[in-house]
Write the structure tokens for this entry.
Amino acid sequence: MRKPTAFAGRSPALYLVAGAFLLGLTATSSAQDGGYRLGVMDKLRIRVAEWQPADGSVRNWDAVGGEYTVGPSGALSLPFIGDLSAAGKTPGEVANAIGEELRSKFALRNLPSASVEVAQFRPVFLAGDVDNPGEYPYSPSLTVLKAVSLAGGLKRSEAGQRFARDFINAQGDSAVYGSERSRLLARRARLMAEVAGAKDLAVPPELKDAPNAPQLIASEAALMRSRRDRYELQLKALADLRSLLESEVQSLAQKTETQKRQLQIASETRDKLSRLTEQGITTNNRLISMEERTASIETSLLDIDTNSLQAKQDISKANQDEINLRNDWEAQRAKELQDTEAELEKLGLQLTTSRQLMSEALAQSAEALKFDPNSKSATIKYTVVRDEGQGAKEVAVDENTTLRPGDVVKVTSELLMQ
């Protein structure tokens, strides 16, 4: 076991961090539970830590932690603990059992906190009329159809005819293309609404029969509002900047008029002083002072003119930025709409091809009468053999049924593939 590391100072914040660390270990197993029961061949990742309140440290039980596999007997073989029953239990229950065993073995005052994660689920097995029957790794959301695809699809007949597999592949492609087409139709409706400046997004006629049309339209409507709000905020920011600059120009114009009046007065005073100086009535000092005053006013006028010119240039730039923003907005919408139309056209061709392949696969089969034209699916049966702790049971399923780790999928094709 690793030597405990003391927390310097043992501040309250540090205790909270350590507590959060241990809570994280517990939360890991709790988050993975979800009612999942462990079984033979499940690979688990185990970590164990123990909080030491006396010296404010966390003791890592590295000798116990690591990756373990549930053995044929349904038990885990752990250092110090020995065989620990795991089959049929949740990761959280196993984690609690590890903590209790360690506390009991070592007479610990505090219960060690264990984390049990499923590193790799036990595999599923494909049998029957599949191209490559055998063992395959399990992944969450694995359906019967996906598992059959992992096994290479349906098995060819001895004569090499691949009616069932070709039909299933074409049917799957058709479903994918149809889903993608619905998404593109919703996107096109949103782009057309943005081009038209509409505030709301209606369901297009092409999506009336799509089962997920409301969700697609709601998603696109949210995106449209977000993009419109951002665009209008940018326009408002430019309008506010232009208004501020125009106010600055007006203020500078008023300052210019004031400075011009002061310059006129200063110039007249300077001329008078110049004549009086020539006549010897006043001194040169007053004339020089007035000359400096006049020059200062002229410099101030130049600065005001420069600032006014800069503000007018900024107004012109803001106007150009607004024009560019509007043009970019319209150009981007037009480009996206054009790309969407091209994708829809491509998907339409792919969808047509898939449907033709499905029709051809049916036409080439001597057992086409076994195909149900109403349900549009081949007569293929799927059965799952599953052990839930009370012995193995067979359950009839369809291709969309979600599998569980350790399931055995039996595929039976009732098509006579010539």
In short: Residues 284-363 form the longest helix (80 residues). The two ends are 66 Å apart (CA to CA). The chain has three domains: 42-120, 125-154+375-414, 162-364. Residues 1-24, 26-32, 366-377 have pLDDT under 50 and may be disordered.
